[in-house]
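queue> pop job 88
queue> type: inverse folding (structure -> sequence)
queue> payload:
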């Protein structure tokens, strides 16, 4: 489990180097500890593996003041565990359900037990700024509309494929639009 904790720590540190999430941002984590252990999703939940993953991932995020949402499995319609403070900050709606390893998954259960004031929400309303998917559990519905993959050197946690994404604001406009400050200043110079 120590190796798993170290992999998770390395992955989140690299993620935050590539996408330094500011205080108050929302990070979504979805994962299958069964996949981490080399089994099919839902067949081998492990609270031990979940704890190791959270021990690696949470401290760097929390040190930055980033809110973390941990997605439950399909048996809870992918409801998420968040701190009550995140619920308020993002205008989320609390639902009544408690995760456990066979309905919600080990990762959501471990997060619920670890968080200070945990609540369950049905949706993040596509407000997450970035996140990680461990084992193909599909977190995309929780991310903001323009998600961009982040290529991490850590491609797996245990036996599970690790995918990471950040989001960016939509690009709007037409042929005359510019998308960087530098382009804008250049256009201003040309105008003058």
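queue> result:
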């Amino acid at each position: 489990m120590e190796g798993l904790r170290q992999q998770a720590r390395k992955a989140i540190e690299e993620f935050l180097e590539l996408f330094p999430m500011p205080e108050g941002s929302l990070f979504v984590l979805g994962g299958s500890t069964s996949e981490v252990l080399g089994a099919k999703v839902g067949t081998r939940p492990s609270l031990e593996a979940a704890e190791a993953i959270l021990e690696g991932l949470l401290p760097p995020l929390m040190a930055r003041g980033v809110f973390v949402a941990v997605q439950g499995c399909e048996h809870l319609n992918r409801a998420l565990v968040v701190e009550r403070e995140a619920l308020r900050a993002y205008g989320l709606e609390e639902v009544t359900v408690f995760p456990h390893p066979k309905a919600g998954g080990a990762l959501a259960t471990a997060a619920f037990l670890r968080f200070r004031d945990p609540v369950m929400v049905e949706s993040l309303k596509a407000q997450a700024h970035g996140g990680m998917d461990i084992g193909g559990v599909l977190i995309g519905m929780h991310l903001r509309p323009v998600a961009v993959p982040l290529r991490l050197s850590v491609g797996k946690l245990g036996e599970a494929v690790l995918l990471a994404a950040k989001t960016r604001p939509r690009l709007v406009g037409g042929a005359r639009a510019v998308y960087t400050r530098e382009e804008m200043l250049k256009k201003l110079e040309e105008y003058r």
